[in-house]
């Protein structure tokens, strides 16, 4: 147990409820009592819980909390009174139950909510399992802080956002070289009570509806930028913290029929401005105090697979949605028998089953680590995750090809309700025999929301850069790949190079492992070249 006990509420935030998995109403009441400062369209939002622009998304988040208590899902969603999303698995059954909750929640949004509560729950759970790393950053107390913060968030079932990326002001310069030294979020000063931070971060997805925010640098911190190596978790209503929203892509008042996705799942993105925000020491994880803090940032990545499972669940839900939509669109207008379109839908189904095999295969090969915590076989999920930004645009492209001009041949719910117009629509806007005008229009509305509307366009851009620059990430996968030597040996064998005795032995073969997780022959990547990352310049 951490020496900082969250039950004593050392964090200065009272969420006013019993501990454990909460309901949608309990979340709503907490958000109402702990209002962040949010700016939307040039005005300060007076109450985020009644703001029309957030209404559909707020209902969806509340449903995700209510899901935990639904009798159909409670046995999966709640473990020992807490949300299963916070489970640290000590058995294979724990691992399965946590994955089932992640998949339930991503199925609820069809994978279109990338920053729903489970995402940060998973990251923080992973961080708690590597808390010792934080303790190397200048004070052993930072390890205790991370553990205590995880318990605080778990016990109150809080909704978090995160701020990682520096604002795109002058990307040719490092943080300390910016015209204003606090353009990027950094430490201004410290005293006996904590640190003061100033600057900005992007992108605070879902920040207006979150109760707490975690911040740390993403992508590495260069030498000379140690003051910007800060990490912490604070309430979103902390004095001096402002969230500035982008333009609303799903204006209030959209009907579910006309906009079945954007009316429910728009995730608002924000700039976070930290105007001399005070962070108490117990909420500091990385202090920005010198090289030790920079070293923590440059080694920081989730290592126990929790967030990998959550993000893979989201992409799997997305793939299932797009494959189903492609088949329904083709069937609705009688084009499912056309060979070129069958080939395209077949391509999507191949991607689906390849991803599904990685998702469930990683769990099938799960093992307990020396600390007793069960972890999935991460290379499968890592490879699938890195491929996702290139798969998603293809999903969109195929749907757009299948729909073609049908996107613009879709009257509204109001048109269907017009008594004089309805008979004409039933005749001229229906699909193949057996598909009514209402069904056909609904399918094409759904497809447009997912791929053509501003909501769909934002989702496309979001998916492509979900984990940063995909080029950098793929290069990092190559740099850190641990089995290069084994692959090189395969080429040597094919070329027939003689062994030390001068003899070519074509039967000198290695048996494939009984255990597919066997890492025999794996090489340790050089420092700073971990798989899936790319070493920071001057880092």
Structural class determined from secondary elements: alpha+beta
Q: Tally the helices: what do you get?
A: 18
Radius of gyration: 25 Å
Oligomer: single chain
The overall average pLDDT, rounded, is 89
Percent helix: 40-55%
Low-confidence blocks of residues = 1-9, 527-539
Give a count of the beta strands, DSSP E runs of length 2 or more: 14
The 3D shape can be described as globular
Q: Termini, distance in Å?
A: 35 Å
Question: What do these coordinates show?
Answer:
By secondary structure, the protein is of the alpha+beta class. The protein is 42% helix and 12% strand. The protein is built from 18 helices and 14 strands. The chain has helices at 24-33, 55-67, 74-77, 92-108, 117-129, 131-134, 141-156, 262-265, 291-299, 306-332, 339-364, 378-403, 413-417, 422-428, 437-451, 454-464, 470-480, 484-494, and strands spanning 37-40, 43-44, 78-79, 82-83, 160-163, 186-190, 194-202, 212-215, 230-235, 241-245, 270-280, 284-287, 367-368, 374-375. The strands form 4 sheets. The protein has a 6-stranded mixed β-sheet, with no helix packed on it. Strand 1 (37-40) and strand 2 (43-44) form a beta hairpin. The longest helix has 27 residues, at 306-332. The chain is globular and about 75 Å long. The two termini are 35 Å apart. 43% of the residues are buried.
Features of the shown structure:
four-stranded mixed β-sheet, 539 residues, disordered N terminus, 14 strands, six-stranded mixed β-sheet, 42% helix, disordered C terminus, alpha+beta
């Amino acid at each position: 147990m951490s020496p900082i006990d969250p039950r004593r509420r050392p964090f200065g935030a009272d969420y006013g409820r019993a501990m454990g998995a909460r309901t949608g109403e309990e979340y709503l009441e907490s958000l109402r009592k702990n209002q962040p400062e949010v700016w939307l369209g040039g005005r300060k939002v007076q109450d985020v819980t009644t703001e029309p622009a957030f209404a559909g998304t707020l209902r969806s988040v509340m449903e995700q909390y209510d899901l935990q208590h639904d009798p159909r899902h409670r046995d999966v969603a709640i473990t020992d009174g807490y949300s299963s999303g916070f489970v640290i698995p000590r058995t294979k059954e724990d691992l399965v139950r946590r994955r089932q909750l992640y998949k339930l929640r991503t199925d609820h949004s069809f994978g279109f909510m990338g920053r729903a509560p489970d995402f940060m729950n998973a990251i923080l759970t992973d961080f708690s399992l590597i808390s010792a790393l934080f303790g190397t950053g200048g004070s052993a107390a930072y390890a205790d802080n991370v553990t205590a913060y995880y318990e605080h968030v778990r016990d109150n079932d809080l909704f978090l956002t995160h701020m990682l990326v520096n604002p795109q002001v002058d990307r040719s310069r490092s943080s300390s070289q910016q015209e204003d030294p606090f353009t990027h979020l950094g430490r201004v000063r410290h005293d006996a009570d904590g640190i003061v931070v100033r600057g900005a971060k992007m992108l605070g997805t879902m920040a207006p509806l979150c109760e707490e925010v975690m911040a740390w640098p993403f992508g590495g911190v260069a030498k000379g930028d140690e003051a910007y190596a800060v990490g912490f978790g604070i309430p979103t209503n902390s004095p001096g913290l402002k969230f500035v929203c982008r333009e609303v892509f799903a204006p209030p008042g959209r009907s579910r029929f006309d906009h079945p996705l954007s009316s429910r799942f728009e995730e608002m993105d924000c700039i976070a401005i930290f105007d001399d925000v005070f962070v108490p020491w117990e909420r500091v994880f990385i202090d920005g105090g010198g090289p030790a803090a920079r070293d923590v940032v440059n080694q920081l990545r989730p290592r126990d697979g929790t967030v990998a499972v959550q993000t893979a669940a989201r992409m799997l839900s997305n793939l299932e949605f797009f494959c189903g939509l492609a088949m329904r669109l083709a069937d609705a207008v009688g084009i499912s028998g056309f060979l070129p379109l069958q080939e395209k839908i077949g391509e999507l189904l191949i991607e689906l089953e390849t991803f599904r095999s990685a998702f469930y295969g990683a769990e099938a090969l799960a093992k307990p680590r020396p600390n007793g915590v069960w972890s999935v076989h991460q290379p499968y999920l890592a490879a699938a995750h890195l491929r996702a930004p290139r798969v998603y645009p293809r999903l969109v492209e195929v749907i757009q090809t299948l729909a073609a001009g049908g996107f613009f041949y879709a009257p509204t719910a109001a048109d269907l309700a017009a008594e004089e117009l309805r008979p004409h629509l039933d005749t001229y806007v229906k699909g193949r025999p057996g598909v009514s005008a209402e069904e056909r229009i609904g399918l094409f509305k759904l497809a447009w929301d997912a791929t053509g509307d501003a909501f769909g366009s934002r989702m496309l851009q979001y998916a492509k850069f979900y984990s940063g620059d995909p080029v950098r990430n793929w290069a990092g996968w190559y740099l850190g790949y641990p089995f290069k030597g084994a692959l090189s040996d395969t080429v040597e064998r094919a070329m027939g190079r003689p062994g030390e005795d001068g003899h070519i032995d074509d039967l000198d073969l290695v048996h494939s492992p009984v255990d597919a997780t066997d890492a025999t022959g794996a090489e340790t990547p050089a420092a700073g070249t971990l798989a899936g990352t790319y070493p920071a310049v001057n880092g």
